[in-house]
């Protein structure tokens, strides 16, 4: 890991859902994983946008999608897709986890609440 590519491939994800939404009883649309510390946060379309808030607060600028079938990285510094190594597993949230999620906290009007 270097300052120009702050990625630690040995760190596992912090959990299966957005850590901040879980703590606050919220819900998310899609999930993103910090490539440096493993913090799982919700995407910028989600109501609380915890992944980008984590990047701003921590100085950890690179995330990776935590959605099944997606392996892209994003660099908040450049606002562009980035390259990165294979990260410690799991690579995505559980396949039976709903999107949006978690199912019991998603409001009926969820599409109207996306950014």
From TrEMBL:
Classification via Gene3D superfamilies: Zinc/RING finger domain, C3HC4 (zinc finger)
Positions of transmembrane segments: none
PROSITE patterns tied to this protein: ZF_UBP
Coiled coil: none
Region Disordered, annotated ranges: 83-115
Pfam families hit by this protein: zf-UBP (PF02148)
UniProt biased composition (Basic and acidic residues): 105-115
InterPro entries, sorted: Znf_RING/FYVE/PHD (IPR013083), Znf_UBP (IPR001607)
Domain UBP-type: start-end pairs: 1-99
Designated name of the protein: UBP-type zinc finger domain-containing protein
């Amino acid at each position: 890991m270097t300052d120009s590519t702050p990625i630690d491939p040995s760190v596992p994800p912090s959990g299966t859902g957005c850590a901040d939404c879980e703590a606050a009883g919220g819900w998310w649309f899609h999930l993103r994983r910090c490539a440096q510390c493993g913090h799982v946060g919700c995407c910028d379309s989600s109501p609380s946008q915890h992944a980008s808030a984590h990047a701003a607060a921590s100085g950890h600028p690179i995330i990776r999608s935590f959605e099944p079938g997606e392996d892209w990285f994003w660099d908040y510094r450049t606002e562009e897709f980035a390259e990165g190594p294979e990260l410690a597993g799991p690579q995505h949230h559980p396949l039976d986890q709903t999107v949006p999620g978690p199912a019991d906290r998603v409001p009926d009007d969820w599409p109207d609440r996306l950014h």
